[in-house]
Amino acid sequence: MIYRFLVTVVLFLFMFQNIFSQEKDLPPLKTVSQVDLKKYIGLWYEIAKIPNSFQDQCAYGTTAEYKLLEDGDIMVINKCFEHNGEDDVAEGLAKVVDKKTNSKLEVSFFSILGFRPFWGDYWVIGLEDNYQWAVVGTPSRKYGWILSRTQTLPNDTLQQIFSLLKDQYYNPDAFEMTLQKNK
């Protein structure tokens, strides 16, 4: 279970390198103007995502928890429940790429003797003023996530987020809603 998850994460990170960008003719992806990392850390619930192979095993209850480390990096703990109810956990590391805004990060879930050869883009492209929801994307627009501090978001908030996604040349119909329920 964990081995399969790690292998898919490694493949995912390779795809994230944007070697073969899916949407080369689109305008550059715009990030938010500023992310206060101290407000951003904590637990986020996945509300929706563009389906991807590295999360195929996740049936419900997907979360991401971020912890700010002393050196400025961020510990990432992704969790979900598989179809059989088993926990699936992946721990990784995020680094801020754009220190002026903190809105462009890279994430790695694979380490060999402390060396992390694969990093994937993690760009904050939407963020509610009080850090109650966030939208994360990649320049290729092949991947995207809607995150919330709560297990659900009101319909009007989702419509606002889908409008933001359209403005960023994402297809909102590509997003699949995540089932949030307790084990």
Tally of individual domains: 1
Under CATH at level 1, the class stands as Mainly Beta
Q: Tally of extended strands?
A: 9
**Name given to the CATH homologous superfamily:** Calycin beta-barrel core domain
Radius of gyration: 15 Å
Give a description of the structure.
Helix content is 17%, strand content 33%. The protein has 183 residues and is α+β, with helices and mostly antiparallel strands. The protein has a single domain (27-106, 121-177), classed as Calycin beta-barrel core domain (Lipocalin). It has an 8-stranded antiparallel beta barrel. The chain is globular, with a radius of gyration of 15 Å. The two termini are 18 Å apart. The model is unreliable at 3-22 (pLDDT under 50).
Question: What is the compact description of this entry?
Answer:
With 183 residues, the chain is α+β, with helices and mostly antiparallel strands. It has three helices and nine strands; from the N terminus they run ααββββββββαβ.
